[in-house]
Amino acid sequence: MLQGNVQSYKYAQNPGDLEFKITRIEPLFKIRDLYAHFLDITIPLQRLNDELIERIANTIQNGQGKAKVRMKIQTPNGDLNLPSNVFNRVSVDPEALQALQTISEINVSLAEK
Fold first, then answer.
1. pLDDT tens, position by position, 56-108
2. Nearest-CA neighbor of 90 among 37, 45, 49, 51?
3. pTM above 0.90, yes or no
4. How far apart (Å, rounded) are the C-alpha atoms in residues 30 and 27?
5. How many of the other CB atoms lie within 10 Å of CB of 108?
6. Is residue 38 a contact partner of residue 68, using CB atoms and an 8 Å limit?
7. Which long-range contacts (CB under 8 A, 24 or more apart) does 99-104 make?
8. In the chain, how long is the greatest CA-to-CA distance?
9. 44 bridge partner residues
10. Which of 110, 112, 95 is nearest to 59 (CA)?
11. Rounded CA gap, 104 and 25, in Å?
12. Residue 108, SS3?
């Protein structure tokens, strides 16, 4: 991943010329760990049951990473958001994400904010 600034080109022949100045370079394999602060899990209310919660809990293995878990329960009257507490930290490694995505009853996404 590249981060940088667009600025006036100091040695430009035309006054409107711009340049992109790189300020930070990150390898792609580190991006998920650096910027995925939340693991969002969306569950429709009609699919919510003890077995599903147990499958999710066994998959994410609480306390193994840096991302907080946020659950959203979809109801006919709107969404119910269940925020994570300080102790609910999980790993967002590829294996854990792939395992979560195999659970057809839920939707999983990563978020920075």
1. 888 887 556 788 888 999 999 999 998 777 667 787 878 888 888 999 999 99
2. 37
3. no
4. 6
5. 20
6. yes
7. 99/59, 100/41, 100/56, 100/59, 100/60, 103/52, 103/55, 103/56, 103/59
8. 68
9. 74
10. 95
11. 36
12. strand
